[in-house]
Amino acid sequence: VGINPAYQVPELEYALQKVGVKALVAAEGYRQQNYYGMISHIAPELASSKPGELKSKALPELSAVIIDSQKSLPGAIKFSELFELPSEQAISKIEMLQSKIMPDSGVNLQFTSGTTGHPKAALMSHFGFVNNGLHIGNRNEMDQKMHRLCVQVPLFHAFGMVIAIMAALSYGSTLVLPTAGFKAADSLAAIVRERCSIILGTPTMYVDLVRRIVESGAKLDSPEIAVTGGATCSPKLFADIKHTLGVRKVKTVFGMTETTAVIFQSLFEESPEDVQQTVGHVTDHYEAKVIDRDGHIVPLGTAGELCVRGYGTMLGYWGDEKKTKETIDADRWLRTGDQFMLREDGYGKIVGRLKEVVIRGGENIYPKEVEDYLNTYPKILEVHCIGVPDERTGEELCAYVRLKDPEETIDREEIKRYCEGKLAYYKVPKYVRVLNDLPKTTSGKVQKFKLAQLFAAERPIQLTSIGVPSCASSPPPFRLATIFFISASSSEMSEWRRRCWDGCSSDEFVAPSTVSSCSLFIRSLLRLPLCRGLLSWLLLLLPVADDRLASEMQDEDEPDDDEDMDSASSSELEPDTSASPAPSFSALPALRVNSRRFSRAVSPPPLPDALDELEPPPPPPPPPPISAVVSQWGVLSR
Fold it and tell me: What InterPro entries has UniProt attached to this entry (predicted)?
């Protein structure tokens, strides 16, 4: 089990308890971290324990703490003494256990990045580890010559563990580890000194490395291939990497912890367009498909959720059978949670994360599209966009920007001018925040949930005068319903707009603490004179919302298969330039209440008398007939 060395005490305790660790190997400390002190804080019994015989209340399964230190520490085994401990009997037992290992046996537990909450522990197989390393190395041309790899990525993640270590072991390549923690200056020095021919890194690492090379004026002649993965890479950064590092190829890899690293990667020869606009070609002996929210395969070139199947699929989440079943179906298809488009030739393109889709007045906005464009602005070093609650449109974009020159400034008007004629008006971020440092994981992924927390801290939760929760609730948001009415006079509509519509968007976001208020609000609508009826689906929300909310609101980085809700057209939500009279009801859309989360599992209750004449909405149309499953060989089935 690889543990992130950046963890603080609560995170370390969570990880050790999650996997039930029996022996812990650690350095005494690193930078500001004192690991022995952290372990002693979690398990205070350590100091009074005999080495190898720890009995801790907080960590009941942990017995041995091994510390790499020159001095003896109370209750801990010195790492240098570890190799002297095994007896012949212990070695025989190890060999016996090794003989029972099968290809599908678990090889390690890999924690997910935790970019949206608590990380989960994915159990990998020997079969997936070996095959992924073999095929990754082949695609990265490691079979062509004896390469020297500059490994900037941490080894406790799938990127470092598989793409670096397993691939190098498969082809006898040399691994160069510049430093214990990423520093662009150390990476540059190692590349020059060791004449590295392949460089591995995340986009964030390449941003810093390119910047360091430009500042130092260094000239590189050894790098041939730059491999990027772990997060999406903008077209501008691709160009900067190739030009500044002087490599002949920039290769991209795309995958996730749950797939033992890679599911898409660059082929041997690709056009510049394919490199910059896709995440590569589906990897060898893997299958990929894209589905809609009902599980039907969508036509090629249509966005949907990416599902993959192959040797690298994890065995499951450790100690979490429910999440495993939600992620992997009975046919071993793994739902990635990525909004994706698949081409007939096997290339794929990330549209965004399903959970990151921003819905502004009914218009879908994929933050990645906006980020890619803003990253081309000369002042900007990197930018990341999140959706934030808005009382009028439901959600708006907030851009968190890191500038190339910390002394520079930038504001929304400058961003808006740069976007004119390039992005639709509703995609332009309403808010712009400048940070010198963005919250990131050790592997360089931006933790967008922390950005959402920063924004929420600026705007405390408020309630409107009629008790409707405002949209400024703290993340993660929960979309309750979209509501329209079927009959009302102009005066009634005016009263409705005055009391409700202007204070609460049609797509309301509700924090856990405000669900009861919303339930009371919805019930009160049935008593208003202006309201002649609501769909029976609305009644579904009241008895089940509280029960379902706990699982919906967990701040874990699980794949999410939900699609967008219907709402008013964003063209109706452009900024008002003058007051306008209340619209007549004939201009309003037809009645509908979208309860997408609950309608599948619960049958509607009997309608009250006032709603007897209403008809439920028609079922959705059947999926399009054109569909495909794509593998390395192209289309397998239609």
Answer: AMP-bd_C, AMP-bd_C_sf, AMP-binding_CS, AMP-dep_synth/lig_dom, ANL_N_sf
**140 and 278 fall within a common domain:** yes
Q: What is the pLDDT of residues 335-350, one digit of tens each?
A: 998 889 999 888 998 8
Sign for the CA dihedral angle at 621, 622, 625, 629 comes to positive
For the segment 206-259, what is each residue's pLDDT rounded down to a tens digit?
Answer: 989 999 999 999 989 899 999 998 766 777 888 899 999 999 999 989 888 899
Please check whether residue 46 lies inside any domain of the structure.
yes
Kindly state whether residue 333 falls inside one of the protein's structural domains.
no
CA 432 vs CA 116, 366, 452: distances in Å: 21, 17, 13
Please list, residue by residue across 608-628, b when 16 or more beta carbons sit within 10 angstroms of its beta carbon and e when fewer do: eeebeeeeeeeeeeeeeeebb
Beta strands at 249-256 and 225-228: parallel, antiparallel or unpaired: parallel
Beta-carbon count within 10 A of 144 CB: 11
Q: Are 161 and 187 in contact (CB under 8 A)?
A: no
Q: Are residues 261 and 125 in the same domain?
A: yes
Q: Work out the widest C-alpha separation in the chain, in whole angstroms.
A: 90
Tell me the Cα Rg of the chain.
Answer: 27
Residues 82 and 110 in one domain: no
> Of 283, 304, 338, at which residue does a domain stop?
283
Q: Angle 412-419/367-374 helices, nearest 10 degrees?
A: 90
Distance CA 564, CA 365 (A): 11
Nearest residue to 155 via CA among 127, 176, 138: 176
Taking each helix axis as running N to C, give the angle between helix 203-216 and helix 235-245, from 0 to 180 degrees, rounded to the nearest 10: 40
Residue 22 structural domain: 9-99
Residues 624 and 283 sit within 8 Å (Cβ to Cβ): no
Helix (H) or strand (E) holding 359: strand 358-360
Domain of 383, CATH number, reads 3.30.300.30
User: Does a structural domain hold residue 539?
Assistant: yes
Are 260 and 124 contacting, i.e. CB atoms less than 8 angstroms apart? yes
Domain assignment of residue 342, yes or no: no
Structure tokens at 565: 């809700």
Judge contact between 264 and 253, C-beta under 8 A. Answer: yes
Query: β-strand 64-68 against 77-78: which pairing, if any?
Result: parallel
Domain count within the chain: 4
3-state class (DSSP) for residue 413: helix
**Do residues 171 and 218 both lie within one domain?**
yes
Average pLDDT of the chain, as a whole number: 74
Q: Are residues 130 and 264 located together in one domain of the fold?
A: yes
